[in-house]
Amino acid sequence: MLEFLRKQRLSLVILITLLGLLLVVFRDQKSPKDSILQQSIQTLVHPAQALAHWIVIEVGGRIDGYINLVDTKAENRQLQQRIAALQAQLNQFREESIQYRRLKHQLAFAKQNPDRKVFAEIIGESADSIHQTRIVNRGQNDGVHRNLAVILQEGVVGHVQAVSPFQSVVQLVTDRRSRVPALIQRNRVRGLAFGTHYGLELRQINRRAEIKEGDRVITSGLGRMYPKGVLLGTVVEVKHKSYELFKTAVLEPAINFDQIEEVFVIIRSHTQPQGPLFSDKP
After folding, report:
1. CA angle 274, 121, 158 (to 5 degrees)
2. Predicted structure pTM score
3. Among candidate residues 278, 271, 167, the one with its CA nearest the CA of residue 232
4. For residue 282, how far is the Cα from the chain centroid?
5. pLDDT at 108 (0 to 100)
6. Do residues 191 and 201 lie in contact, with contact meaning Cβ atoms separated by under 8 Å?
7. Which one of 4, 111, 173, 228 is at 20 to 30 Å from 66 when CA atoms are compared?
8. Percent of the chain with pLDDT over 70
9. Domain limits of the chain?
């Protein structure tokens, strides 16, 4: 039906126009015969008029609905783009707020003593599963050289293993090659902290030494690579068999190495006394 009306729409328009003109002509006549004829023509034309009215209303409504739908889709697309932009902006604000809170404490820590601390951002990590290293964006041009300690306010991160003009490789204390002279803060019992890849172990502890879970282990300052008094970790387990000469303590590292983003490289001042960089008091 609609297909037929679409094809014959010109004919229908001409027919309706002619009938309308006839109505105008006969409307001005006064004779009864003309009135009957006029009524007859109106009766005949009424279905066509009703159909034409329906077509106008239906088609017009559909066109208006389509135009409104197009406008609504365009507005919806614009709103979605605006929401995405606001979400990105909100995420940026959150990231900046988190970074500000994190750096605020670290920068306050950097001012606690006269030794120079070079602030560095981590820009890479070891490509293999054997070594525990990180790459930082500071190198020889910033005064960094091999075997300098790398720390955070929370504790020891590691030391500079290799250096280039613009970046350096930091070996973490959890690396299996790492050895750090250490002592138990509570009773000053000495040992050597070994990296185990997944954590730390304090080994070579005298078998008669008292050590318990919860003891804090700090750097002893021996070897002059790490300043004295920096936290290494906390004892979570003590291992010792009756026939062994030494005890071993499993440590939970003070640093969560999966979350660090910035570090400090300690450049000891040659004009300052080589005393402890940190207080080793709990």
Report:
1. 45
2. 0.61
3. 278
4. 35
5. 64
6. no
7. 4
8. 61
9. 1-111, 116-267
Q: For residue 124, what are its two tokens?
A: 């890479």
pLDDT in tens, 145-167: 999 999 998 899 999 999 999 99
Is 70 exceeded by the pLDDT of residue 20?
no
In this prediction, residues 212-239 reach a mean pLDDT of: 92
pLDDT band at 78 (very low <50, low <70, confident <90, very high): confident
CATH number for region 116-267: 2.40.10.350
What distance in Å separates the CA atoms of residue 136 and residue 105, rounded to the nearest whole number? 20
CA distance 170 to 126: 10
Residue 194 CA to residue 24 CA, distance in Å, equals 109
**Residue among 138, 182, 122 nearest 156 (CA):** 182
Predicted pLDDT at 121: 92
